[in-house]
Write a structure and sequence with these properties.
Two copies of one chain form a homodimer. The first copy, chain A, is of the alpha/beta class and about 300 residues long. Chain A has a single domain, classed as TIM Barrel (Alpha-Beta Barrel). Chain A contains twelve helices and ten strands. In chain A, the strands form two sheets. An eight-stranded parallel beta barrel of chain A has the order 1-2-3-4-5-8-9-10, surrounded by nine helices. In chain A, strand 8, helix 8 and strand 9 form a beta-alpha-beta unit. The first copy, chain A, is globular. Chain A starts with 7 loop residues before the first strand and ends with a helix. The model of chain A has no long low-confidence stretch (mean pLDDT about 95). Chains A and B meet through helix 8, helix 9, helix 10 and helix 12 of A and helix 8, helix 9, helix 10 and helix 12 of B.
């Protein structure tokens, strides 16, 4: 249990963040956002989601966004792809990586994607087979890894089971996700004790929401377990569909401030991220949802 | 370095919190706030400040507030007292404990109370002598224990020096204070490494502001050092005079949620605190400054 000296911040603001905002920003704003994020030094940016536009209308412009990005060779642009149709669209649009998502909660899986956990894995199989052929890295999200809005606490064994399946199917990394932001450091420790006994830390990422303000404490705990990839969202973009008015993903700038203080390298420029947090928040018509950005008001 | 099984939350909302709010709430609201806090199970409440009303007009009603509280025998009501005049007013008003404040930063001390650190300690001496005679416990705050808005980083040795002086002068507890909320867990660890080599954990409290969102991560670190008293402010009351729009003290409900998750006892009812956060925030005309209260919107 030693903290990493270098951490990868996996920016999910343009996808997970914007997808949960009430306002849909125009394509040029999305492109500008992604370009600002790459200029700030982020090397992993989830740029779009190729899901059915019927379900997520905020992401109907995914092709246009991908086409408009000023590509930076140091950056890997990823896209969420629930199935082979989405995968094909994503790759045609120039995505470097793709991501699939499963849930650790049966109830959430059924309500969110209308499939059991087992069926959802079967659905992804063609994506993974094709991606392997295409040599496209596939990331996986395991949602409700701590608490489910329908079932309550989720057993660490259930999370390990789904994560192991996804690794076995060929995913290079599994992002353990606190979808509703309800975990505390004790939950994080309990889960990592279980999962790390079977899956090495370098195949895991931690994806936390800051709904209950626990995100940084949870990340600090995960760092102590050697986790070195964290998902975050500039300006704390996004929200929580189960708690109107609540925070979304942990803010990139809040994580970065802590990592800087801990002497952990990221290659990301804090001031540029704060500036970007204000840029996108103004486009959305609300204040940034991060304490740091609010303290550094323009 | 083992975490405590029980923690004392020292509620500073009615004093440190309200003193930094733009709006001054009427006496009955202050009294109602304090009564709600004691009903929620808090046993240490800083209820008022007996400083010069010229400097802190928000606290000019300290006597009326103290006189109006529905006293709960389980609760210790404390008051900030910068000098013997303040001390006498506080004790006449029924304060169970008093608190003095010094700074670990010379520049901050000079600008904030117009005295060097050494002179400020000399000023408190009569308060401590009289309190000892009266058997009134005296708490001390050491402000700018991590970062000073004028000097930047403060050496842990400077903090230890002031804290040791205050203990030697008779203070039962020293609250190490991150006045501008700029510390990260690395700063907390560095400081506690130094201070705990000379002062036992049960003579220390940690008082953090959440300006940069680091408060819970810092508290988690302090818990790992065995610190068992934390200051907090219902609804995250207060602000930061050096960063308009920024957060104030760490919110009692955010700390409590984490402690509950960690299985650490406090005797405080989370739902009652959230309800109180909304009550006082509505009286102040703004939303609570805690993610938890926002997630549990009425």
């Amino acid at each position: 249990m030693t903290r990493p000296t270098r951490v990868t911040l996996y920016e999910v603001g343009p996808r997970d963040g914007l997808q949960s905002e009430a306002v849909t920003v125009p394509v040029p704003v999305k492109i500008d956002l992604i370009n600002r994020l790459s200029a700030a030094g982020l090397t992993h940016i989830e740029a779009a989601s190729f899901v059915s536009t019927k379900w997520v209308p905020q992401m109907a412009d995914a092709e246009a966004v991908m086409a408009g990005i000023a590509r930076d060779a140091r950056v890997s642009y990823s896209a969420l792809t629930p199935n082979l149709i989405g995968y094909t669209r994503a790759i045609s649009s120039g995505a470097d990586r793709v991501a699939v998502f499963a849930s650790a909660s049966e109830s959430f899986s059924l309500r969110n994607i209308n499939a059991t956990i087992a069926d959802s894995l079967i659905r992804f199989a063609p994506v993974l087979t094709t991606a392997e052929k295409d040599q496209v890295p596939v990331r996986a999200y395991v949602s409700c890894a701590f608490v489910c809005p329908y079932e309550g606490r989720i057993a660490p064994e259930a999370v390990l089971n789904v994560a192991q399946n996804l690794i076995d199917m060929g995913c290079y990394e599994v992002a353990i996700s606190d979808t509703i932001g309800a975990a505390t450091p004790a939950d994080m420790a309990r889960l990592l004790d279980q999962v790390l006994s079977h899956i090495p830390a370098d195949r895991l990422a931690v994806h936390v929401h800051d709904t209950y303000g626990q995100a940084l404490a949870n990340i600090l705990t995960a760092l102590d377990y050697g986790i070195a990839t964290f998902d975050s969202s500039v300006g704390g973009l996004g929200g929580c569909p189960y708690a109107p008015g609540a925070s979304g993903n942990v803010a990139t700038e809040d994580v970065l401030y802590m990592l800087n203080g801990l002497g952990i390298e990221t290659g990301v420029d804090l001031d540029a991220i704060i500036e970007t947090a204000w840029f996108i928040s103004e486009a959305l018509g609300h204040a940034p949802r991060s304490k740091l950005a609010m303290a550094k008001a323009r």
